Amino acid sequence: MDHDEQRPEVRELSSRQRRVLGVLMEKGLTTPEYYPMTMKAVIAGCNQKSNRSPITSYDEDAVEETLDQLRELGLGAVILPDSGRTERYRHYVRKRYSFSEPQIAILTELLLRGRQTMGELRGRASRMVPIEDLTALRAELSGLIEQGYAQATDALERRGVEVDHCFYKASENRTMEAATAAVSSSGPARRHESAAAAPAVSSAAPANNAALVELLAENQQLKSDVEDLKQDVARLNDRLDKLCRDLGV
């Protein structure tokens, strides 16, 4: 039997483990020519300012410790090149889970940024693996949700639904159900106030609803476009750094 098959299933990861694993997964998809990654590249990927939430400032000791933890979990490995040059690091997500390539891209984005809308997630994940439309995204997400690796605030077909991964530690209390409960437990007075205000909002909504939906969609697209540009710049910076190292500049 394969050694990995004997390992317990990993369902929870610390915030640092999620960040380091997400970086390995991301770079393996977006810059395969520089993968597996050097320690320096992993640190830079963890601390980059684009496509990360929250922003971190991990040092080498923290990242090295986390990479060792991922190795113990069977989720990572160190590669020793035949050339004897710097050690490199890779993930073993494909070995440990039966995820499709789109699902790996989806989880990568959720591990790196956390909770986000369907539109945001598709725009970001499709940079790594083609995801044609929201219908395709829903199909892949449904499989992850059924297996308990992803969660959503509502049915995936509903407008405004947000999704997230499920690799949080139990102590973090980051389930979508908990978030919903926090909103609904704001007290009798607040609920009464909301109920009283509902008719006025409802009566005003028909006249402005179409324009509001259009503005929200345009705003979402602009956010996605800006994020894509930031990630393109970060990717170019990574390649420039690699070229400079190769040239000894």
Structure description:
This protein is mostly helical and 249 residues long. Among the domains are: 3-97, Orthogonal Bundle (Arc Repressor Mutant, subunit A), CATH 1.10.10; 187-249. It is 58% helix and 8% strand. The chain has helices at 15-30, 39-47, 60-72, 93-96, 101-113, 118-125, 134-146, 176-184, 188-247, and strands at 37-38, 76-79, 88-91, 116-117, 150-152, 162-165. The strands form two sheets. A three-stranded antiparallel beta sheet has the order 1-3-2. The model is unreliable at 178-207 (pLDDT under 50).
How far is the first residue's CA from the last residue's CA?
A: 48 Å
The ordered H/E elements are: HEHHEEHHEHHEEHH
Category by helix and strand content: mainly alpha
Q: What would you say the CATH architecture of one domain is?
A: Orthogonal Bundle
Oligomer: single chain
Biggest sheet overview: 3 strands, antiparallel
Kindly report the average pLDDT value: 82
Number of helices: 9
Evaluate the radius of gyration: 21 Å
Estimated share of beta-strand residues: 5-15%
